[in-house]
Amino acid sequence: MGVLLIFGIAGIIIGSVLGTRSNNSGADTTINWKGGMWAFACDFNTPNMAVVPTESSLCGAKCIETLNCTHFTWTDVNNGTCFMKAGNISTEDAVRTTDPTMICGVAYLGDYIRFNQTIDWQGRDWTYACDFSDDSFLIIRSAGADCGELCLTNPPCTHFMWSKVLGGTCFLKQGNVTKNDALATNDANMVCGVAYAKNVVLLNETVEWNINNTAVSCDFQGNDLSNNQTAQADCSILCSKTPLCTHFTWSQYSGGTCFMKKGNVSRDDAFRTNDSTMMCGIILTV
């Protein structure tokens, strides 16, 4: 995985800063763990495997998606830095610090990757308990059911992983991969998948609308209301019966899914895709 490594003088300076915040001999050594995974005012006295600038809320997610990272520390050094660490460790190995803004945590998945484990795709472009080992170019908090659609509507995303970290996070990835590149994990709630149509958006292409306000090979950006697995022919009807639904997109995702959307739109808001099975439409009367 590509990570940002900081060597030499920068590492010495950061190490010195962290060292001044440690409080191993302080009277209060109690660490208040949140969900048994992370806490404030704590650190691990273990070497860093990688150092990445990021906001505090994404440090744990970065650790989880980085191969071999098992625990981490975040500080406000350089406007926010995530120190990712490797090795067998538990929350009992953490030490209390004097900095209330410092965060430390453990990756919620122990023995994360299941080697030599077959992934059962069940004929779909997504499945459970899997991940891809490459870095994410975009991380978005979302429900698991929305992660595949987020990939399809955020070029150049070609594959993705969703996990329950931070209440639900979608990791969008790019590059030439296949299902064979996925790795099995021991998290039955984790989802990974490939975008069934690479380079899905066709720029400067005209959407050809039918008289019934539907079209093929098209999509609408965002404004998702809800989604349901259904046949393509039923998507328009489903949207018309759903309060607030004003437009929709249907795709082959998850065996056939109707993505119902809200807000004022027109035909001009739709964009062309290279998937001839995809359909989008507008409901005249909601």
TrEMBL record:
Q: Which InterPro entries match?
A: Pan_app
Q: Write down what this protein is called.
A: Apple domain-containing protein
Where the record annotates domain Apple, the positions are: 55-85, 137-173, 219-261
Signal peptide location: 1-19
Organism of provenance: Adineta ricciae (Rotifer)
**Would the keyword Signal be found if you checked this record's keyword annotation?**
yes
- What keywords are annotated for this sequence in UniProt? Signal
Keyword check for Signal, yes or no: yes
* Listed Gene3D superfamilies: Hepatocyte Growth Factor
